[in-house]
Design brief:
Blueprint lengths: L2 H30 L3 E7 L5 H12 L5 E7 L4 H7 L5 E5 L8 H7 L10 E5 L16 E7 L6 H4 L1 H6 L2 E5 L11 H11 L4 E4 L8 H13 L2
Parallel strand pairs: 1-4, 1-5, 2-3, 2-4, 5-6, 6-7
Bound molecules: magnesium ion and zinc ion (ZN).
Length: 222
Amino acid sequence: MNTEEGMKINIVQNVLAYNKEHAKVNRDLFKENRVYVVNLLSSPGAGKTSLIIETIKKLKDRYSIGVIEGDIASTHDAEKIRRYTSQVVQINTGGSCHLNASMINKAIEKLNLAKIDLLFIENVGNLICPVGFDLGEDSMAVISSVSEGDDKPVKYPKVFIKSDLILLNKIDMLGLADFNKDFFTGKIRELNTRAEVFELSCIKGTGLSDWTDWISAAADNK
Ligand code: MG
Ligand code: ZN
């Protein structure tokens, strides 16, 4: 290994060690306040914001729900979500294509964790690097949508391997898009046999209760 390679490896290790420390601080705070946290990953447009909104609508009488919105720029999604809950923080990463634990650390200072049961972190729309950054969450969920095609598990295996929950959104578009569901689910199961898989449509409301039942049980058990 030459010196330059050695330096690169060191930098990567430092970044990840720094992230790990902050993730632990977050995890301890979430535990102390009994907040169940889901880190939501997907490519842009798969339906993260819509899923959060539909979930709040269904669960708002039972749980107090907070949201951290991660975007490269704008407050567009946070403004949408603010119509459904007041506990929203927008993080603008200023170009960075993923959230890290230290950004979450600062964001939760603006939330009243003692009053939150369930916290959704909408990561930056990107199926690659967010996977490598533990935010201190309880579970990582990936959303893939029918309109994106069935090849996401083949092209971005790591996110499907690491996720605890895999959501197939926009199932109302089956038959309208080039999407072979058997191929998609087959590939998912080759990569990950432990994840819960939900098929749903945020627009039609199909399959949403399976997801909200799972989330409710998880929040109750924390
Ligand atoms: Mg969004
Ligand atoms: Zn990134």
